[in-house]
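README: folding subset

This subset contains proteins for which both the sequence and a predicted structure token string are available. Records are stored as plain text. Below is the entry for ABC-type Fe3+-siderophore transport system, permease component (327 residues), shown exactly as it appears on disk.
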Amino acid sequence: MRAVALVALAVALVLVAAASVAFGARGVTWADIVAGVSGSQETLAEAAVSQRVPRTLLAAVVGAALGVSGALMQGVSRNPLADPGIFGINNGAALFVVIGMTFFNMTDQYAFIWVALAGAAVTAVFVYLVGSLGRGGTTPLKLALAGAATSIALSSLVSAVILPRVEVMDSFRFWQIGGVGGAAFDTISRVAPFLLVGFVLALVSARGLNSLALGDEMARGLGVHVERTRIIAGVGAVLLCGGATAVAGPIAFIGLVVPHVCRMLFGPDHRWLLPLSACTGAVLLTASDVIGRIIARPEELEVGIVTALVGAPFFILIVRRMKVRAL
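--- output ---
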């Protein structure tokens, strides 16, 4: 069943990728698509197709990264409401990028990647430390509360830095919405090593995350090194989330919706949940990008807005069905 679902998702990804290349603000013919995919940019239509190819690839890669990072965070925290946005990871990356742009005149995309990764890592460690304070140590509820409070604080800091600086606000606001419109093969190649390492660490931690779902004591009884598993999975999540945020901005709800749906449909086994979340995230983000280009013709609706419109109702549904003690 899960293998069939994985194949079906792969086919769906091919179909939405084809739609992403074919549909957009500018209409194109089959001849334009063939020429544009081949690299020709002699006409405006061929140039549009040529630009959609890296955009489609980036949407698929970022969607997969966010889906897997959300699954890792939910596994580490044992909290189905965990995702990079709710835990403040996106805002941590955004704050470091804003500081780099404002105080260090940072413009290089490669520098953005390193700075965003640093911000994501610092935020993840801070949230985990705060969630570990007090009696009982780390609990899913304490982690969720620490992440929510940190996310709000970081968002306020981002606003405090950019509001007095109009020139920074103009360049940052498009990145902050979250989108893949400025994709280029050079950008993808720069972030690819970080995402690849993140995916590998995610797969390595899959068995350990299955044991963590039973509780720390049970996991230790099964011979799992709990802290090492959390560190490996956490580093993988930070690399995936930080890299995706650096190149596409803080896209919300993919990391929450995708793993939750995959877990409900295919079970909690992370050996299957992680690749299924990767494929589903890639399909969802690519499809959202296509929708954003079609419904707002001749303009475009950024993919971060589309995913928020899809994810917000789903998040409310999850919260209504969950009980606090289940967190």
